[in-house]
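Sequence design from tokenized structure. All designs in this work follow the same two-part layout: the structure record, then the generated sequence. An example of the structure record is given first.
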């Protein structure tokens, strides 16, 4: 009886959404318009993905115009990017998206988040950045930290996240919020979406590849500067986000190994196979005829 009374008077759990940006995603603080994320097109060198972790789908875009989408259904916050955790340059206008030298695969508009978390961080070596526009960096170019994964944190209304989604300009969803996971410490209902623009496998020319993509981002913003060496001094990531699985902040080339480790653990603890209702919501079974060779 007492438990029922306590449950009735307990405040509803806060809904929290984590939006993970992995790799070559250039975030522009557009002031009152919130943030705009630019996913630069690296061709076959990168995969551009969006969705729930391990279940993302590739972002296919018109080769000339790319795709443009917006995150809907979350509350707007007040957080800005931290110059001590990101390479940030001053710009007076938004970058052109029809520049053939800097093709853009996707643009995603986002409200300003409540908080921004940083993972996969490394400090560039002194003198790694050279050029005439170093004064346009908000942080000291000799002490610049690059965060390979940024996480935007949002709150949102409702009980199930029904209205939370990333929708493209045609009204089609790139991602829709799944069922929320309830966590107890702190008491929250949590969902997460991942946006990747990274190699699926670790490139053999790691330093050359990283220099290429960083310099492509400088070109996007018209910055007369060049990264000459991508080697970084790693900075430890001890941050833990509620409801976030250990491998989620990791780069794309570590996503499948982490998922496989989780799968092995699930198989060890599994009691046995369950039942399946078949395809088509249980009313149909997808399949076809088979054959056996006879002499």
């Amino acid at each position: 009886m007492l438990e029922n009374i306590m449950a009735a008077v307990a405040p509803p759990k806060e809904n929290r959404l984590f939006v993970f940006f992995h790799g070559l995603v250039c975030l522009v603080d557009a002031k009152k318009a919130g943030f705009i994320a630019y996913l630069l097109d690296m061709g076959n060198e990168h995969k551009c993905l969006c969705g729930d972790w391990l279940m993302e789908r590739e972002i296919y875009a018109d080769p000339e115009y790319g795709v443009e989408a917006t995150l809907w259904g979350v509350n707007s916050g007040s957080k800005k990017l931290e110059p001590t955790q990101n390479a940030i340059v001053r710009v007076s206008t938004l970058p052109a998206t029809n520049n053939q030298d800097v093709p853009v695969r996707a643009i995603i508009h986002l409200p300003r988040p409540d908080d921004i978390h940083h993972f996969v961080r490394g400090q560039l070596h002194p003198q790694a950045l050279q050029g005439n526009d170093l004064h346009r960096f908000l942080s000291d170019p000799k002490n610049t930290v690059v965060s390979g994964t940024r996480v935007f944190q949002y709150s949102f209304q409702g009980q199930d996240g029904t209205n939370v989604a990333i929708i493209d300009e045609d009204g089609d969803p790139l991602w829709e919020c799944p069922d929320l996971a309830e966590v107890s410490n702190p008491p929250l209902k949590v969902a997460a979406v991942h946006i990747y623009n990274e190699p699926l496998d670790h490139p053999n020319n790691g330093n050359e590849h990283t220099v290429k993509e960083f310099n492509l981002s400088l070109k996007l913003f018209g910055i007369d500067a060049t990264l000459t060496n991508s080697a970084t001094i790693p900075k430890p990531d001890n941050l833990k986000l509620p409801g976030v699985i250990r491998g989620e902040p990791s780069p794309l080339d570590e996503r499948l190994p982490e998922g496989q480790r989780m799968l092995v653990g699930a198989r060890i603890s599994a009691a046995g196979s369950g039942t399946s209702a078949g395809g088509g919501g249980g009313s149909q079974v997808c399949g076809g005829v088979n054959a056996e060779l006879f002499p």
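Residues 92 and 221 are 10 Å apart (CA to CA). We note this feature because it recurs in several other targets discussed in the main text.
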